[in-house]
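pinging the channel bc i need a second pair of eyes. not urgent but kinda urgent?? the chain im working w is below, pasted from the shared doc
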Amino acid sequence: MRILFIATPDVAVDKGGLYTQVINTRKYLEKLGVEVDLFDVWYTLDKTYDLVHIFRADVSLLDTINRLKKNAKKIVLSPIFASTHNIPTIRMINLSNEILKRFKVSSLHIFLKRIMETVDLILPNTEEEINTLSLGFGIPRKKFRKIPNGVDEMFYFADPGEFKSRYSLENFILYTGWIGSARKNTLNLIKALKNINRKAVFIGREIDEGKYTKRCLSLIGENPNIITIPSIPHNSSLLASAYAACDTFVLPSLYETPGLSALEAALAGAKIVITNRGGTTEYFEDMVEYINPKSTKSISNAIERSLSIEKDNQLREYIRKNFLWDRVAKILYKTYMKIIRQED
């Protein structure tokens, strides 16, 4: 089986969660004997592929998808769709778009719908994402198949000693990701930490989102309990060690799909405080503290509750059993085979 992966160009620049998903999906499919190529715009497609896998429903990929489809390529899509709108609002937007199309007026949602209508199968990470896309965009439910996100087993064997030795820190609150990001909701997290008497470590790079970022950095400077550390490579044992050394990992995003860093931290043994937006309950069930990301009180109360309880291995073992990359790759492999074997 020969598969072509295509993603938006920013994936390799930011090297965030989607980059991790793409690279690990390729790695574990190759262990199953699948040949996987990463699309490069500077090289002609001189190979025959059984299937093309698109990562992210993005308007920049619509023309590429259309050209592939004209050449009879079978295409699956991991939409990675994140929205703060509820389903009725998304449905209303799309109904309005049907009227706008008559006047040759386009919007982002029109292009996203075209992408989903063109591909052969859509592979969201959660049932919540399926409901949002199916009901919000009017895409038949039979066109979806849930493929969960995965996590590398290396985090299960993380040693807290490496991080403790380097930074003389343990049992702290941990956040990893962009610092100063509105979608990651770092401002509300910083505000929630103001009256919590525990060291908090932020690992990640600062991004520039104007006044929002400046406000975040200003409040971090006012809180002696918050320590910032530059980004650590994802495959570094030091990052895994940070997960293992912390008490509670916090991911307060306005929306997640569902949060690879939280899966990694949970596998390393951390307690988890996470947003209730984006299908996170499908991965963490009742074994974590959920928060309303728009409420600093909700975030602070959840962190306090998490700090007050002892660690156990229930969530860690659950993640290891259900969400390791090798298991995800096998589910995806079977899905590919089903699509490939379908008659044109």
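so The domain at 153-322 is CATH 3.40.50.2000 (Rossmann fold). and The radius of gyration is 21 Å. — does that match what u expected or am i reading it wrong
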